[in-house]
Amino acid sequence: MNLPALMSKTRIALAASAVLLAIFGFTTRNTGADQSSTAIGDKAPELAFYNPDSTKVLKLSSLRGQYVLVDFWASWCGPCRHENPNIVRSYEKYSKAKFKKGKGFTIYSVSLDKSRAAWKQAIEKDKLNWPYHVSDLNAWSSAGARLYGVNSIPMNFLVDPDGIIVAKNLRGTQLDKALDAYVKSF
What range defines the domain where residue 77 resides? Predict the structure, then answer.
């Protein structure tokens, strides 16, 4: 075989290998290998990350006994920032409400930011006044996002006082409607 023919076949083999690797990479990207089940009715997987000042690890399990919205968001995410006023309104409305079961409602915010400064500025600017803000500052490589199968944001999970996921992807007034089902009526 002559050298130009051999080089051509080598280029074709390399190109085919690159295409196969690209296809394999895209099809196996979010297979859920590290993902726990996050279907409604499943136990919410544990999350434990540092707060914005990196002074304390906050565990999701420490909030057992309350309804908790596990909210995945980021400072750079326009739709997240647009949804934040709805979440703030729900927090203000339900954080002191009396529930049929459980001690109240709070939010466990998981940021997919890389910049601590941008994350902290967004918390302040959007008036996200609950105490449970966490991140590993790994953006889309966040361990929490992988564990929960998050591939777009905003995304959230409503967890009951026993740690069971009871609703997902609540937007606008949907969160209020979901929480209303658990609030004591007088």
Answer: 48-180
